[in-house]
Amino acid sequence: MQPSLWLALAGAGVLISFTPGAGAINTMSNSLNSGFRRSIWGILGQQAALVVHILIVALGVGVLVASSPLAFNVIRYAGAAYLVYLGIRQFLHKPDLDQEKAAALRNEPAFSMFRRGLWVNLLNPKAVVFFLAFMPQFIRPEQPLLPQYAVLSATVIVIDILVMWFFFAAAARSFQRFTHDARGQKVLNRTFGVLFVGVGVLLASIH
């Protein structure tokens, strides 16, 4: 990939990663509940989903999903329902000042966080459609495809990890002062619950 084309790809990747969405909300929620360092597991799950989306588009399945209203809608509504479920669960979660339970929440298994991050991004067919429109801009069909897809994937994933961890996860640390009393916990739980539900509804309603 030519340096000028890569710079354009990197710039687009930064703008995409800074766009708030379900992944950003999930990252901030993980950072608040489990800490800044351990939030990386949810972020890695989200990146695994991005790899799947890129593979789908690279193999041409993205065209099928984009051209099949039934397949697209099934995945879209499943993703929306999962986000709404996460939001309702977060909204109804009762404040808990018990230190032992708080420690258990902070020590949520890494695989559990990874799996949730994976599903949050995986159940978003708009990502397939987006990559279907986005990737061809940076691929030259007359050149070997595998190295180009490798560079594109590595660039998008590294940028997204950096933005998610050092911006969204770090930003959540400023909210930690609210977690020390019941009222603050309730405000945070309801805020993130509404955000999850809002993104889910948006995913289901925007065509």
Automatic annotation (TrEMBL):
Keywords on record: Cell membrane, Membrane, Transmembrane, Transmembrane helix
Subcellular location: Cell membrane
Membrane topology: Multi-pass membrane protein
Residue ranges of the TM segments: 48-66, 118-139, 151-175, 187-206
Highest taxon of source: Bacteria
InterPro entries named among the record's database cross-references: LeuE-type
Predominant location category: membrane
Cell membrane recorded as keyword: yes
Pfam family, one: LysE
Name of this protein: LysE family transporter
